[in-house]
Amino acid sequence: MQQWWRSLTQDNQINLIGIVLVALLGGIGYLIKTNLGKGEVPEATAPGNVTQTTNGGHAFNNIAGNVQVGDNIIRIGITLAEHEQSLKKREAEIREELEQAHVENRAQLEIQLHAVQQQLQDSKASYEAHIASLREQIARLEAMRDEVPDALLNEAIVALKQGQPQKADALLKQIEDEGEDQIKLIAEAAYQRGKIAMDAIRYLDALKHYEKAARLAPDNSLYLNEAGFINNTLAFHQKAINYIELALASDLKTYGEDHPNVATYRNNLGEAWRALGQYDKAIDYYEQALASDLKTYGEDHPKVAIRRNNLGLAWHALGQYEKAINYYELALASDL
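Above: the chain's sequence. Below: its structure in token form.
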């Protein structure tokens, strides 16, 4: 997962605005991906008291990771302590790999180390994002189960609910290996393995799985966007642009101009172009995304704040500090 806020400059005024904005939007950063829109299509929702019906009864979220059904609390995923332990274990693994890594592999390892450290800085927010992502993942698999009954799929769902991602990954691999001509099922299994690898901050594995999903289902904009996201995360920016342009073209054809997905992909293209130093192109995409999201959500929405923040970053990179400050201030006002 990329850090969505980039360091501004040593300029005190700009840094002050940036620090305040981080404080206000920090919890959003994990849930609504601001650099490359990961998870926005469909978008992860923040944990909370989400009402649902279960077996004719009434269920509601009790705390992050738990669902209460009647008098019983059913845990989904892992606890906060287990999440922190997993991050620390991954950090140690990456540091050990860095000691033995060749020069060409160090950049990807350092990106992953940075991601672990960012999540550890606010482990509660990253934990809540993990649980929200897990709920989305389970919901997608359960919807798939209705279309393609499969015993392995059922077992994978149970493993995810029990906080056993490695077991779920092994079961999904079996689905890939045994799926024969069920291309849709195999592609979804590859996508789900990508999510497991992404959550575990094993980005090269995620890259392999997401690109396989996109290859098997080349018209699936979600798979294309995820393939673009992981490529951008690993600094393969031109490949990211190629995937996201395909996602954008697909959803423009399906939904038309005024759809949140279209705005997301344009924001994502802006991020990739900004990473390549093509700030004018980035600004054009950000402005299109902002105009669309203003129409969809209005002024006071986190996505509007995010788009304005990104415009501030791009104008700052061009040395247009007054414009940058104006967008940062508008971003603050949008999310107050």
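The beta strands are 51-54, 57-61, 66-69, 72-75.
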